Amino acid sequence: MRLNKYIAQAGICSRRKADELTKEGKVKINGAVMKEPGYDVQDGDVVMVGGVTLEAPEQHVYYALNKPCGYITTTSDEKDRPTVISLLTDVTARVYPVGRLDGDTSGLLLLTNDGDLTYHVSHPSKKVYKTYLALVAGYLKKDELWALRNGVDIGEKRPTAPARVTILKEKSDTTLLEIQICEGRNRQVRRMCKAVGHTVLELQRTAIGEIKLGRLLEGNYRKLTPREIEYLKNC
User: How far apart are CA 226 and CA 235, in angstroms?
Assistant: First the structure.
């Protein structure tokens, strides 16, 4: 198996990133630095990346999780906070989150050991829309809604990309929004709403592209269907 594929299937990174790590001298084969990305890994070879010995690639698995608030989207945490991995009670494969969800945000999170798929779905050029339900304080004015849809300044070098924003329900002191974004900036939806003067009270991700949260209960998970996996690989 080609070296970059071996590393990607171990869930470390994408094949492209694996090639970069190899050229940088961060990959060893049987204790010797390997700088040839085209190397074919043989049975019995010991592959190390950044000083970590990789296990032989496992069969790829793909899961959808309804993440509750309070869980961290990492595989471990220095502060001993609960992680999303702890919810996968019967998953033996070493999986990693595809993208992130803030600790105080709930909803759909994908997890897999397929590094290539993770890279593909997460890359900004793919423009895979993520759908959120955001309960915000106050009533949105027309100019505020226009700003959310057309891009707002959230304190970075460039404004946010155009978003799809729909008002689902209005009350005297809150508004329920559906927000679809194709970027993945840190706490983006919360910062977008704050930029137009509204605090997000509750936030849930309900879809990633065509993959829907549906009726999956909070804290539960399921395997992706073959059709969903094929969609993610080709979106």
Answer: 14
Known catalytic residues are 102
Contact 155, 191 (CB under 8 A): yes
State pLDDT tens for residues 117-137.
Answer: 888 888 777 788 999 999 999
Work out whether strand 32-33 and strand 221-223 pair parallel, antiparallel, or are unpaired: unpaired
Phi, psi of 100 (to 5 degrees): -135, 160
Task: For the chain, give the longest Cα–Cα distance.
Answer: 67
User: Tokens representing 99?
Assistant: 């993208």
136: part of which helix (H) or strand (E)?
strand 130-137
Residue pLDDT, tens place only, 80-128? 889 999 999 999 888 999 988 999 999 999 999 988 888 888 877 778 8
| Amino acid letter for position 10 | A
Tokens of 186: 């840190």
* CB contact set of 96 (below 8 Å; sequence gap of 6+): 11, 75, 111, 112, 113, 118
Encoding tokens for residue 194?
């704050």
